[in-house]
């Protein structure tokens, strides 16, 4: 198949594109490189079946020829971007998704939009099921991303209702692995960076809030399975193994052998206290469940950060 991947230079987009190329597909990668890595693009360009187009998805796509699948991962998703890039995020989730939906409609392509566990906000249901409507602050510091993704889901549902557009909506929970940005701002790369530099690991609050970590290869497998399924309703993709933030910091210290100390800092506003997916729908409808255990995944991620420390991204 000929497949378009928007956001191919980002963390998940890069790994997804690599997987699709390994599977024998032709991939057209789209990215405006506002947060994506040129190094990721350079690695993908080594494949003969990869074509890159530097482009902002909020503008009409000029890709010619047949396209059968569209994967949308083109949105800044790191907390460090929620302030300076808030309008870019909202544009990507509105005008950008609209343009991709129009592109998919014109080409008769199936469209998968990467939604997020953040649509659940600071949840009052635990674990979170797809039927939960969420607990989101529409004017808080995370609103550009949380509400942007909620709008995108509503938009695509309407495109399906009005035009019959084939849509797929994964709700992605915390994902990690090699090729994450050093300045990602998310917990795991921040802890690893701090540990390798000998800086204090900054744990928000007392660290009792929980997260569930899914290794990127597992997540990509779920995305591909969902795309090729008949499932149109949202599907949680994540690892249900839940640990506290403090435990994650301690595991990073052990893996890196760092002598860094743990420093407790105030929790950001609207920081979710609990995050764990109910993946019953993915297990039942996709036959999908994560297989990479956290100790192995954490070790592989730390090794990548150690190997690439100081290299340009």
Q: Quote the distance from N terminus to C terminus.
A: 30 Å
- What would the principal axes of the Cα set say about the shape? globular
Which architecture name of the largest domain does CATH use? Answer: 3-Layer(aba) Sandwich
Number of helices: 9
The arrangement of helices and strands along the chain is EHEHEEHEEHEEEHEEEHEEHEHH
Helix content: 25-40%
Structural category: alpha/beta
Average pLDDT level: 94
Proportion of residues in extended strands: 15-25%
Assign the CATH class of the largest domain: Alpha Beta
As for the CATH topology of the largest domain, it is Rossmann fold
- Radius of gyration computed on alpha carbons: 19 Å
Number of strands: 15
Strand order of the largest sheet: 3-2-1-4-5-7
Q: Uncertain segments of ≥5 residues (pLDDT<50)? A: none
Number of structurally distinct domains: 2
Q: What is the makeup of the main sheet?
A: 6 strands, parallel
Please, what is the CATH homologous superfamily of the largest domain? NAD(P)-binding Rossmann-like Domain
Describe it.
With 313 residues, the protein is α/β, with parallel strands linked by helices. The protein folds into two domains: 196 residues, 3-Layer(aba) Sandwich (Rossmann fold); 88 residues, UDP-galactose 4-epimerase, domain 1 (Alpha-Beta Complex). Helix content is 38%, strand content 17%. It contains nine helices and 15 strands. The chain is globular. The relative contact order is 0.14.
């Amino acid at each position: 198949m000929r497949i378009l991947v928007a956001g191919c230079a980002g963390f998940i987009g890069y790994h997804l594109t690599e997987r699709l190329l390994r599977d024998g597909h032709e991939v057209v990668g789209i990215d405006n490189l506002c947060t994506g890595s040129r190094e990721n693009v350079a690695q993908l360009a080594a494949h003969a079946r990869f074509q890159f187009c530097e482009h902002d998805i909020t503008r009409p796509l000029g890709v010619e020829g047949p396209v059968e699948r569209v994967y949308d991962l083109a949105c800044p998703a790191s907390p460090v971007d929620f302030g300076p890039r808030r309008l870019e995020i909202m544009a990507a989730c509105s005008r950008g998704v609209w343009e991709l939906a129009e592109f998919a409609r014109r080409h008769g392509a199936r469209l998968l939009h990467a939604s997020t566990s953040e649509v659940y906000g600071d949840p009052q249901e635990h674990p979170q099921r797809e039927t939960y409507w969420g607990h989101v602050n529409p004017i808080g510091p995370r609103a550009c991303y949380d509400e942007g993704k909620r709008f995108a889901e509503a938009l695509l549902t309407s495109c399906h209702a009005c035009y019959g557009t084939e849509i797929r909506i994964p709700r992605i929970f915390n994902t990690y692995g090699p090729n994450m940005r050093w300045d990602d701002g998310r917990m795991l790369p921040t802890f690893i960076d701090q540990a390798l530099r000998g800086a204090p690991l900054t744990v928000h609050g007392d660290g009792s809030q929980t997260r569930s970590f899914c290794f990127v290869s597992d997540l990509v497998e779920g995305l591909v399975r969902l795309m090729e399924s008949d499932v149109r309703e949202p599907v949680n993709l994540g690892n249900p193994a839940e640990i506290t933030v403090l435990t994650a910091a301690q595991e990073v210290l052990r893996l890196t052998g760092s002598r860094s100390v743990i420093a407790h800092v105030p929790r950001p506003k609207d920081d979710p206290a609990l995050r764990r997916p109910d993946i019953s729908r993915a297990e039942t409808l996709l036959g999908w469940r994560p297989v990479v255990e956290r100790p192995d995944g954490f070790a592989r991620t730390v090794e990548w950060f150690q190997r690439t420390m100081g290299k340009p991204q």
